[in-house]
Write a structure and sequence with these properties.
Layout: E1 6-9, E2 14-19, E3 24-30, H1 42-56, H2 72-82, E4 90-91, H3 92-99, H4 103-112, E5 124-125, H5 140-151
Helix pairs in contact: 2-3, 2-4, 3-4
């Protein structure tokens, strides 16, 4: 289990923030009844500040040092997700076409994203519907995805 360097309560979940000395390495969705944890490092404090700014203004642009790991394809997919503006979404197929890949591979990269919200995998949706989130197709994780998309003003079918 990862050691959180901060736990930030949001309207939809508690976000567990994991850092190293030089980068944010993980954001985990924790149940709302998880106790908050004041930031234990300066970088965790900055991550909390930026996440709170996003919660106040969904158009906020994150500027955090990130360390994602992952395969070369996953890193390419995560960069492509970061280019999707708030309030917009792309389908797994659209992103796959951009990356010269397959929708299933994009879905796997979404599910492997270690930094949700900051790397907005919630902005990748099914061609007809919400799609999954964090390798889940029902339950709390889809509620998190719905909340994030609603917060950003995303409306299916909007250009």
């Amino acid at each position: 289990m990862k050691t959180c360097h901060a736990r930030l309560k949001t309207p939809f979940a508690v976000l567990g923030i994991v850092t190293t000395d030089r980068a944010v390495t993980g954001i985990d969705f924790l149940p709302l009844n998880t106790p908050e944890l004041a930031p234990r490092t300066p970088l965790a404090a900055e991550a909390c500040r930026q996440l709170q700014a996003y919660l106040s203004d969904p158009s906020f642009s994150f500027d955090l040092p990130l360390e994602t790991g992952g395969t070369e394809f996953q890193r390419r997919a995560w960069r492509a997700m970061q280019a999707i503006p708030p309030g917009r979404a792309k389908s797994y197929g659209e992103l796959a076409e951009e990356l010269h890949s397959a929708p299933r591979a994009v879905g796997q990269a979404c599910g492997a994203n270690p930094l949700p919200v900051v790397i907005p995998c919630h902005r990748v949706v099914a061609k007809a519907g919400l799609g999954g989130f964090a390798h889940a197709v029902s339950g709390d994780f889809l509620d998190y995805k719905r909340w994030l998309l609603d917060h950003e003003g995303y409306r299916p079918g909007a250009a």
